[in-house]
Prior knowledge:
- This protein is α+β, with helices and mostly antiparallel strands.
- It folds into five domains: 61 residues, CATH 2.40.50.140; 72 residues, CATH 2.40.50.640; 276 residues, no CATH class; 58 residues; 88 residues, CATH 2.40.50.140.
- It contains 14 helices and 29 strands.
- It has a five-stranded antiparallel beta sheet. A five-stranded mixed beta sheet has the order 7-6-9-10-8, covered by helices on one side.
- β2 and β3 form a beta hairpin.
- The longest helix is centred in the last third of the chain and has 28 residues.
Amino acid sequence: MFQDNPLLNQLKQTMKANTPKRTGIVKASDRGFGFLETDKGKRFFIAPSEMKKVLHGDRISATIQENGDKSSAEPVELKQTEITDFVAQISISPKRVSIKANNPLIQGFFKIKGAMQLANKGYHDGDWVNVKLLTHALEGNGFLVEVTEKIAEHNDPFAYRLIAVANHKLPNKAPEFDHPWQVTDPELERKDLTKVPFFTIDGVNTQDMDDALFVEENPQGWTLTVAISDPSAYVPEMTDLDKEAYKRSFTLYLPNFNVPMLPRDLSDSLCSLKEGEKRATICCSIQIASNGEIIGEPEFFAAWIKSHYRLNYHDVSNFLENEELNEQQWKPNKELSQLLHTLDNATEVRHQWRCKNTIVMKNQPDYTLKLNNKGEVYEILCEPRRTANRLVEESMIVANVCAGDFLAKHKKQGVFNVHSGIASDRLEKAVKLLADYNIKTDSASLATLSGYVAMRQQVALLNNAYLDHRLRRLLSYADTSAAPAPHFTMGVKHYATWTSPIRKYGDLINHRLIKSVLTNQQATPVAADIGVHLNEARKAQRMAERDVNNLLYCNYLKDQEDADWRYKAEIFDIVKAGCRVRVQENGATFFIPNSLLSKPTSDNKKVECCREEGVVKVAGNVELQLGDVIDVMLSSVKPESRQLIAKLADPLA
């Protein structure tokens, strides 16, 4: 009766026009409701029924409804949506086809274009698919989507890897190009060093070996020659292959799975420094003095080399760390034994020089997740950095320092790793914090490389984990730059990586620049925004790595939920809602909410997590702080949100 009443409709339109509106961003929750966060910082509740009209991240205009002292938002107009496609799991039955987004924050009801034909196209119930958004609910009659491709089969035990890769719009397989793979720079003179006994040290299963080493002792100290595989000899600039490598920027590494930047017949074969195979390389010979300092000018040159020994970290570490080895353990021949002992001496002296003159960050163990054929973790290995790791790390660091200085001097451009130390707006905070530990400095000094290094040298003597964490929070972000600039947190004037050109596009660029100096030719200018591109590509990869690892940890630890097992964990972040800790035995990250820091009584309201100070207080007294190692117990596992919730094993009083 009233449905088509023109007077009633006109009244509704008038009331709607007079209702106040706000513009902002939709923030969804995994429980159906959401919030509108306005540009002025206000927050309005969005009911579950209204959330069906919008997606997380949408910029919308909404009317604000007042109900006593509570306000709520009702979406009316879409300004912009961030979601154009997403990953979902498809449900197919004879009567109905539906999808459920992998992201728990995407919860709308989606109509699927051509839904009933999907089964005939090879889709099965439970398959993971990519979905394209055709029509937004605020611009049509509900959400309309289209299934565009299959990501993983319903019965694939490793589907989670493909899902994570698709979520972050990363490639899931190696690039494929038909190519004769001939050297493209015949004008570059290469020394024949195939008789020099270079050797590689990598993981047991590594296929893309890109660095080999040779060292000799001399009256001044040592001559270290670092040979790096030269894929730029086979990848011409601006070709389709080069553009694909630029797009990928890095090789993606996930547990038991990698997606290379270059075709596998390059990365794992022709460019890999395999034992006994002749390979094109760029080399750098570095003179290291008996006190560990670099002396003279490092020499860069092109060469053909042949790796004489393919070694792994485990065997080399066992050999160098143990005076006596049993018959079952690996032992090098006389030539290799001398090479390894010589390199051990040179890199130890070099490491000590860096400790005294630059900044050496504390080594963290590596955690390796071992998977079975069902895609499940059956073991997590905690692998501390051992002697062989130090040999390779020190060799690569000194080579990258030399490359940074070389490119800064000869080209004044390149792909540089840069860091400006303490953020400019936090210098005064740093000065006050350091004064509490009797370290005297000032803002002007901290803003210089020498002043920052001097400060870090003093801090290192204190061996104070809390102070280290507090200072880390005051740092600016590390960056990648086309122009040379210092790297404060390493304590060096220039740092340009060139030692992993098979895996990193920035290193490939630096190879081309080094070769342009060797041939006295003009090089293609490095794009000013190269850092932005590389940083975004690396961020996407790290998010995919995080998603996979968090899910694997959740599945691995789910049987420990509410168990009495105690874990030793270090507090590495404190926010208003609680603490984040890293378990020392397996590398898992737990979150301890405020409510689980103390016993479940009214006293837990006295617990306060102070992000600015990096401490947890109870009734105003500091009880925990950043860097503390505490006992925690797993409280709950949430695989959908990939969260591990913990509690203090000994609650705060």
